[in-house]
Amino acid sequence: MSPKKPEESGGAAVAEDIQVKEPPKFAVLLHNDDFTTMEFVIEVLLRFFRRTTEESVKIMLEVHEKGSGVAGIYPSEIAETKVSQVTEYAQASGYPLRLTFEPL
């Protein structure tokens, strides 16, 4: 008598039965204010969000014209960390730049 294969015996899960669920995503938003310079917003986007110069300028203009803009989309823990890091950096640099994150 030959031993049963895992899928026949109910022992091990078959790879196609395993479903990995993506963590929920959150948008990190930059908010416009009357004091933070456009250059500083571009610097933040380049440094903390790894945006290109072209992307950074586009996002900065959106923040300036519409009141807010999406800096990036991340799982909740990363989004929260980005908000915290940039807020600390902005305060240390003398700017009141406000960031928030919200679920998509």
Description:
The protein is of the alpha+beta class and 104 residues long. The chain has 4 helices and 3 strands. It has helices at 6-9, 38-49, 53-66, 76-92, and strands at residues 25-31, 68-75, 98-103. The chain has a 3-stranded antiparallel β-sheet. Helix 2 packs across helix 3 (53-66). The protein is elongated.
User: Which CATH C-level class of one domain is it?
Assistant: Alpha Beta
> Which outline best applies?
elongated
Q: Could you estimate the helical fraction of the residues in percent?
A: 40-55%
CATH topology of one domain: Ribosomal Protein L30, Chain: A
Rounded average pLDDT: 90
Amino-to-carboxy terminus distance: 55 Å
The tally of strands reads: 3
DSSP helix count? 4
Trace the largest sheet across and list its strands.
Answer: 2-1-3
Indicate the CATH architecture of one domain. 2-Layer Sandwich
What is the element string, with H for helices and E for strands? HEHHEHE
- Which structural category fits the helices and strands? alpha+beta
Largest sheet descriptor = 3 strands, antiparallel
What value does the Rg take, in angstroms? 22 Å
Q: CATH superfamily assignment of one domain?
A: Ribosomal protein L7/L12, C-terminal domain/Adaptor protein ClpS
Low-confidence stretches: none
What proportion of the residues form beta strands (DSSP E)? 15-25%
